[in-house]
Design a protein that fits this description.
Layout: E1 2-6, H1 10-21, E2 25-30, H2 33-41, E3 45-48, H3 54-59, E4 67-70, H4 75-87, E5 91-95, H5 101-107, E6 114-116, H6 118-131, E7 135-142, E8 145-151, E9 172-178, E10 198-204, H7 208-215, H8 218-225
Helix pairs in contact: 7-8
GO biological process, one term: potassium ion transport
Protein name: Potassium channel family protein
Domain RCK C-terminal: 135-217
């Protein structure tokens, strides 16, 4: 696939590297000359210019790409680039900082295909490292939804029960299940939960503590809930 990424800073350049490693074609758009030089030294195709201007994106090949990632630290530049991308019929991804979260959901979310929060993703990783234990946040799916990976403990209230018997809160769903040391897959109703098994759960933030309590137990739930 072909992608245009606006911004060759920390987020944009790292994203470009990952996509290139997977065999995709990348064009970076960057205004800062030092970043342009650094990206070119890393063998990226770079268009030097303002990513919020249509003529710059046309030079970057916006007419023939599959998706545009507006990944600068400037929300206005990112949104303008996404609107140009939508005009040319490509998928659009808008980067925002955590401070803009509520505002973006109210004003911009319907105008783009995806919104990403690099700071939030970094915070998830840091929280997981600090907490350790049997619960790991995987990703924020929407404004109030998160996917967590839970490892069943010996003291779990659901240890020994089947998937069908797990009564999660109304705003939570089991997405995947894996026996200890085995790959995860689609959960089956008669899969039994045993110590070391892993369960991926999609849950509203409001019921995360209830999910932890049910699948892990009191001790770990209390520690995780303070994060």
């Amino acid at each position: 696939m072909r992608f245009v990424i606006i911004g060759a800073g920390r987020v944009g350049l790292r994203t470009a590297r990952v996509l290139r490693e997977e065999g995709h074609d990348i064009v970076l758009v960057e205004l800062d000359r030092d970043r342009v030089k650094r990206a070119r030294e890393a063998d990226f195709d770079v268009v030097e210019g303002d990513g919020s201007r249509e003529e710059v994106l046309v030079e970057a090949g916006i007419e023939a790409v599959d998706a545009l990632g507006a990944l600068t630290a400037d929300l206005n530049v990112n949104f303008a680039a996404c609107m140009i991308g939508k005009h040319f019929g490509c998928r659009t991804v808008l980067r925002v900082d955590e401070d803009y979260r509520e505002e973006v959901y109210q004003k911009y979310a319907k105008e783009v295909d995806e919104i990403v929060y690099p700071e939030r993703l970094g915070a998830i990783g840091a929280k997981n490292a600090l907490l350790g234990g049997s619960i790991r946040a995987i990703a924020d799916i929407a404004q109030h939804l998160q996917v967590i990976l839970v490892t069943v403990t010996e003291g779990s209230p659901m240890n020994g029960y089947s998937i069908e018997e797990v009564a999660l809160p109304a705003n939570a769903r089991i997405l995947a299940f894996g026996k200890k040391d085995e790959p995860m897959g689609i959960p089956l109703s008669d899969d039994s939960l045993e110590t070391g098994d892993r369960v991926a759960v999609l849950a509203d933030f409001d019921v995360l503590d209830d999910v932890r309590q049910l699948l892990v137990g009191d001790e770990v739930a209390t520690a995780a809930g303070g994060a």
